[in-house]
Request: fold
Amino acid sequence: MNSPFLTRIARFFILLFLQVFVFNHIHLFGYATPLAIGYMVVCMQRETSRTSILLWGFITGLVYDLFSNTPGMASASCTLAAMVQPMLLNIFKPHDAAENFTPSITILGFSSYTLYAFMLLFIMHAAFYLLDACTLINWPLTLLAMISGAALSTAIAVGIELLVRTGRRTELHP
Amino acid sequence: MRALIDIIVKNKHWFLFLALEVISLFFLFSHNGYQKNVYFTTANGVVGSTYDVISSITAYLYLGEENAALERKNEQLRRELYELKQAQEIAKSKQTKRMPALARKYDVVQAQVVNMTLHKANNLITINKGEADGIRPEMGVVCSRGVVGIVYLTSKHYSIVIPLINTDSKVSCRLRHSEYFGSLIWKRGYADRALVTNIPCHAPVKNKDIVETNGFSDIFPPGLPIGTIQSINNSIDGMSYLIKVKLFANFATLRDVSVITNYTSPERHQLEEEALYTTTQDSTQNQQ
Reply:
């Protein structure tokens, strides 16, 4: 799987499967569900065109919506995250990094990567839960859902990163 | 003109972003009603049958068989109790001679929950029985602890249930102690609490009293438990109580449910429809 496109497709299906059958059943405080599908947007390469990032974000959200009965909610929030991703990545870009890199712990460092992923996923969760609630009447619960959902999704993203990194290392030094 | 085109080309991602958001919001606001949910039940069908496989594996882990047997036994006892109560009532009122055929019985179909949501405003439950098992929309769904909800959509082998914890759910109920009746609604938030409205302020309401179905609707027989009263407040207009109820059904661990299938009485339905027809005709004649 050398082509980045194929890697992305494979990543998409694995994430979708995990999201629909595992993460959708996590209800923190009886309410907050992590949208790990946002990892698709988190690990978009820096040189990817903005149009392509937007389309990937939108389609990811749309397919997730189809499988979890949340029409429009995830597609709107994933598109928003895809719009913000290049700007956020610019802030966290290390000085010595190549022009084209995939955001990962190896390149950004653990703390920067975690902060970057959390900020991006928080924007996505905020949009999702605001659209879900449509009002601010029960705002403490909505805010709690945003923060805890984003934190859990970040933990999942970091977990996947660490897993992939150990995988790569053993590949290099078996 | 060229400058305008240049601006559009340069900022094309902004226009794409806006277009995609508009499409998403269109989906959000046009498909979020139940009526338009049918489109999404296709995807639900795929997920539903996969859940069926998963749930048949986990049923073994959770001793599903034993649960189902207990549920059947419970249901049988509940039905016997109900029939006995009705016989008792008939025996009590000896002045009115009722034909025995009018005593109402009901049958149930056992089903299992294969999918459900707890954290949305419009929570739905998918169960693994459908039209092929005699289930139709507007039938009541109960579990061993109490009322669960009402069937909304059916396909051949699956049905979608609107549970009590859905903002669109409204079930008529009464207080067991005083027999005053009201309606049970749900506000987004906790999955184990609901509200009873329309109980007049002069009604005696006690904490811990049981809320049960009142049998006015054609969906649930009277006396099925719904929950216990947790706190009592006045409604905004001050004319009635707003009562917080702790639901008996535990939606987070719900698995085995029963659908009440033939409680609906065609005779009653026909009579009510005829009455409605006659009164509307009368009023149009009066207007003329």
Remarks:
- The two ends of chain B are 65 Å apart (CA to CA).
- The helical segments of chain B are 2-10, 12-31, 38-61, 64-92, 266-287.
- The interface with chain A takes residues 12-13, 16-17, 20-21, 23-32, 37, 40, 43-44, 46-47, 50, 54, 117-121, 124, 188-191, 252 of chain B (CB under 8 Å).
- Residues 64-92 of chain B form the longest helix (29 residues).
